[in-house]
Design goal:
CATH class: Alpha Beta
Bound molecules: S-adenosylmethionine
Strand order of the largest sheet: 3-2-1-4-5-7-6
Structural class: alpha/beta
Number of helices: 6
Distance between the termini: 35 Å
Number of domains: 1
Oligomer: single chain
Radius of gyration: 15 Å
Largest sheet: 7 strands, mixed
Order of helices and strands: HEHEHEHEHEHEE
CATH superfamily: Vaccinia Virus protein VP39
Number of strands: 7
Shape: globular
Strand content: 15-25%
Amino acid sequence: MPVFPKPIHLAHQLIEKLVRSGDVAVDATLGNGHDALFLGGLVGERGRVIGFDVQSSAIESSEERMVENGISNYDFHLVGHEKMGELITQEYLPLVVVMFNLGYLPNADKSIITREMTTIPALESALGLVRVGGLVSIMCYPGHEGGDEESKAVSAWAANLAREEYRVAHYGLHNAPNNPPFLLLVEKLG
Ligand SMILES: C[S@@+](CC[C@H](N)C(=O)[O-])C[C@H]1O[C@@H](n2cnc3c(N)ncnc32)[C@H](O)[C@@H]1O
């Protein structure tokens, strides 16, 4: 185990410390459901995982993963995460964490990617829905086509959040080749 974890592993380590049984957590980009499964294990039977993706294959493989692992407390929506403000009803608020894992679905159509014009509104919604002390975590992948523009826009958005309201951290391996992924963490202050 290296001293510095990979960015996604750091996100998991921090989220593990934050989430309690009974909490409600969101996976804003379900993909193959790895993050949703991770969140499902943390919130337990009394909690709930709410997930979004624009591809039916992502919803299907995420559901399969949850069912295979005996987790049933989830609501997955085949709709863009920019609609989360409309779809997450009052009974589930406030959220403890919203995870974004940007980019494309591995082993699928690489032209279907997250894009800043919908990612940034979704991030804004997420900040409104998380509780004080809650977290929005964002894995950015600047290395693929379209990923660099989105990563820059998301990074600039996060850097401009009001310091009195949010703490923002930026983590990544600095000497890795080819535009390596990085993690942004936004903590909502009281
Ligand atoms: C890198 S993958 C996510 C990986 C996933 N978290 C996992 O654990 O397997 C990015 C996903 O974002 C989805 N996506 C693209 N645009 C989206 C949008 N507007 N709202 C929600 N998901 C979107 C893609 O379909 C893709 O499945």
